[in-house]
Specification:
Blueprint lengths: L15 H16 L5 H15 L5 E8 L2 E9 L5 E3 L3 H9 L3 E3 L17 E9 L2 E10 L7 H14 L4
Antiparallel strand pairs: 1-2, 1-6, 2-3, 4-5, 5-6
Helix pairs in contact: 1-2, 1-4
């Protein structure tokens, strides 16, 4: 049985850098040597849900035939296809840059898959300089994500570039 949960060692909360270090370590352990990218994304979606507090959606969109297609996730049902350049995920995919959005209602062209989402963090996964997927995190709290979250998920995306 796998038990990948944050090691709080007697403390209630971890610093964000430590939480993301442990998340990356767990993701590496689960994906190392596994060639199936969808299986790896499914396990990492579950890990993100377990490790990162205050989420209402955690998962992936994969690049297929020039658009984003829903991949493994945890949360409510989501939009299946997102064109490049549309919404937060499509913007991250088209620019290849992390999108940290404090208030999704203020983001031009935001695609509302879940009305409960208030903030979003989307990080592209690059393989050989090309976006192959994005990691998408949504929260029901405005301003939930910050630069430490972005740095942690960017490190996870780099690790996953070889696993998906």
């Amino acid at each position: 049985m796998f038990d990948f949960t944050p090691d709080r060692s007697g403390t209630e909360t971890l610093s964000k850098p430590e939480l993301y270090r442990q998340l990356a370590s767990a993701a590496d352990a689960l994906t190392s040597g596994e060639p199936d990218g969808v299986a790896n994304m499914a396990n990492v979606a579950a890990l993100m849900w377990e490790f990162i507090p205050t989420l209402n959606w955690a998962g992936f969109y994969r690049v297929i035939d020039g658009e984003l297609v829903l991949g493994p996730f945890v949360g409510r049902p989501a939009c299946i296809r997102i064109p490049f350049g549309q919404g937060v995920c499509g913007t991250a995919a088209s620019t290849g840059e992390t999108q940290l959005v404090e208030d999704v209602h203020a983001f031009p062209g935001h695609i509302a898959c879940d009305a409960a989402s208030q903030s979003e963090l989307v990080v592209p996964i690059l393989k050989d300089g090309t976006v192959v997927a994005v990691i998408d995190l949504d929260s029901p709290e405005t301003g939930r994500f910050d630069d430490e979250d972005a740095t942690g998920i960017e490190a996870l995306a780099k690790l996953l570039s070889c696993a998906i």
